[in-house]
Amino acid sequence: MLTDVTRRGLLRAAGAAGVAATAGSAVAASVGVAEAATRAGENLPFYGAHQPGIATPQQPALFLAAFDLETSKVAKLRALMRNWSAAAARMTQGLRVAPDLQSGEVPPGDSGDVDGLLAGRLTVTFGFGARVFTLGGLAGRRPAALQPLPRFAGEEIEARRSGGDLVVQACAEDPAIAFHAVRMLATLGAGTVRLRWTQRGFLPSRYRGDQTPRNLMGMKDGTLNPRPSQPGFAQVVWTGGSDAAWLRDGTYMVFRRIRMNLPHWDSSSRSDQEATIGRHRESGAPLGGSRENDIPNFRARDRNGRFVIPARAHVRLAHPSFNGGIEILRRGYSYDDGVTEIGPLRDGAPHSHAPGFNAGLAFVAFMRDPQAQFVPLQRRLAAQDRLNQYITHVGSAVFVVPPGARQGGYVGETLLG
Amino acid sequence: MLTDVTRRGLLRAAGAAGVAATAGSAVAASVGVAEAATRAGENLPFYGAHQPGIATPQQPALFLAAFDLETSKVAKLRALMRNWSAAAARMTQGLRVAPDLQSGEVPPGDSGDVDGLLAGRLTVTFGFGARVFTLGGLAGRRPAALQPLPRFAGEEIEARRSGGDLVVQACAEDPAIAFHAVRMLATLGAGTVRLRWTQRGFLPSRYRGDQTPRNLMGMKDGTLNPRPSQPGFAQVVWTGGSDAAWLRDGTYMVFRRIRMNLPHWDSSSRSDQEATIGRHRESGAPLGGSRENDIPNFRARDRNGRFVIPARAHVRLAHPSFNGGIEILRRGYSYDDGVTEIGPLRDGAPHSHAPGFNAGLAFVAFMRDPQAQFVPLQRRLAAQDRLNQYITHVGSAVFVVPPGARQGGYVGETLLG
């Protein structure tokens, strides 16, 4: 079946390459239209005002990697971002990261493991951690909102899953394509950066477009996400006039690795689960409503006078109307990562000592100011959310995400150029 | 694009349900044709002479899990295999593992995270480790070929990634579907089994049918795999007349987690890589040949009198013609699993202390007798394979795989029934 799709993709590619050439694509121009036409199906643009992978509809596979700088020289970081941007642009157009040299005496320019595949809607998104702004000349340009996250109640953050000087987010239709992209960038970065942590994620691959994906709890997750087509989207996500000029059209990424105690969740009654989230499992409708997009009625009470959407339900505590209008753009993925010993649970819940799936939510969110958006929201959730009995935050990082690169430029140019 | 595919799947489903009913499918019958018709697209049969997931063309996502028995009672194992088989049959037909009860006062029967998806070519395959045959009444029925694997040269096997009393292999189009299946089976097994290790894997999802997938080394992997349509396939894979009667139409699974030193591989020249494998990277052709399916000429020498396919090349050492005709059915997947410190390498290769991707090959192979097939083959490879400078076996397990279940029966019935 997908063979047909691929074939159709190939048939479309000639047209796509034509469009790219019309748009003056540096990539298509530099590699020749013939090569582009052969491999250019399912491409998303790399160049633009904003980086891709933020407002882009979620692809089903995530590969996220944080790197630490091994240099204190801005020139080396600049060279890295040039190389990374050019490589990302090629790969997002379905091209090898570098054309293979004819000689067998040198390493191939590309690992080749996704040779013959199309770009698969690959996006690559880059971000900078706080230490970037300790490099010579950049100290005064650190944006005020790029601060370490405070300690939140209940979290059990592991250093080996947290922090980092640079982040690369690759999203694609296919986990092989996302992994390949980050691997190639890691290779290009050897000597300048070293790998710190990685985080893979998946979404059910048939949830497309407007359908809200379900997380590992079986709940629709993201119903109230701001949509790029809505007028308030830019105010939620993109940095604007009051920010540093180099950061205009940028954003921030907050990453949290949120482990779920799945055995505990799976042994809870449906009523408990729904009261925890504040939504019906099947429809995703807020409790008391019947459709997913019904506006939650937080005042409604049942015949016993109790809130229909309980006081500590996740949807209530996280809702903008209880948080001074705060919104963030969530772009999270489910993850699983081997077997873990589930330790004692909080809140007097029964203890479980059986090994379980080390699994949960790779929470990725974008916003214009994490100090003003994520921090107060998470403070409130960490303190009160009924969901906390099932989840533990075990990884954390925050990055500033520069604007997109212009054609022929590179991500970070407004800061480093 | 996939929306079209899904829609076509749904349109086909009515027909598929009709076929199932004609074939007397216990599943379709027990849940009602209407439910089956709604969700039954892209189904592979669960019942049959052989278990699915062996001769089945490889789906792109693997989730493999080993469990340890927490019981010494055959009756509990029998009940587990009954429940697991019924659950697997439902899920492979795109149905929830159990119909949801109306009451909110009990846990939902299914975690619901893949609700609304189709079966996605899910297969579930079960196997038994040696300890199953220590349960009362089964001691005399352990097949002779189910022996622990010997220690092989160079391996660094970790207990936490190895062994196990039972194995479940779920393969599907979508990692979410494969994970869901194993998670539901783990939940059903609580009290009888506990999770020991898990192994996820992926293949580039557009390699279908006869196209040989590439591994993380960029090499086509599986060119010489026996094909179900070939006459010798049964002799390679399925247990036959000389085996225990309960095992007829069964097989064995050998699992090896093979870590690849990707930075080392990626810094090797193309000539080195091709001489290591004995094939051309791009075409997959044996060295000296031009097409992937060319028969390797192991006698050919270059003008300096050296073998064109080097003496220690992987394809030569692994080829049936140098191993008394031994073949196995490989069904491996690429994996990545966070960050590892790459230690010193063998064979005088340069040391690398940079953290790298913890990644490699989740080797899964099926054969009628691991002692006669995998063991001699791997002894030879472990001792001589030029590939060993890039790989390390870090996980290992062997399981006997019972025949498929008849309609309404269960996997393992010929042993436990």
Structure characterization notes:
2 copies of one chain form a homodimer. Chain A has helices at residues 2-22, 26-31, 33-39, 74-92, 175-188, 233-237, 262-266, 270-277, 314-317, 374-384, 413-416; strands spanning 61-69, 123-128, 166-172, 193-202, 251-260, 329-330, 333-341, 355-367, 391-401. The first copy, chain A, is of the alpha+beta class and 417 residues long. Among the domains of chain A are: 1-38, no CATH class; 262-398, no CATH class. In chain A, the strands form 2 sheets. In chain A, strands 5, 6, 7, 8 and 9 form a 5-stranded antiparallel sheet that branches. Chain A has a 4-stranded antiparallel sheet with strand order 2-3-1-4. In chain A, helix 4 (74-92) runs antiparallel to helix 5 (175-188). Chain A is globular. Chains A and B meet through helix 1, helix 5, strand 4, helix 7 and helix 8 of A and helix 1, helix 5, strand 4, helix 7 and helix 8 of B.
What order do the helices and strands come in, and which of them pair?
The structure is a homodimer of 417-residue chains.
Chain A: H1 2-22, H2 26-31, H3 33-39, E1 61-69, H4 74-92, E2 123-128, E3 166-172, H5 175-188, E4 193-202, H6 233-237, E5 251-260, H7 262-266, H8 270-277, H9 314-317, E6 329-330, E7 333-341, E8 355-367, H10 374-384, E9 391-401, H11 413-416
Antiparallel strand pairs in A: 1-3, 1-4, 2-3, 5-8, 5-9, 6-8, 7-8
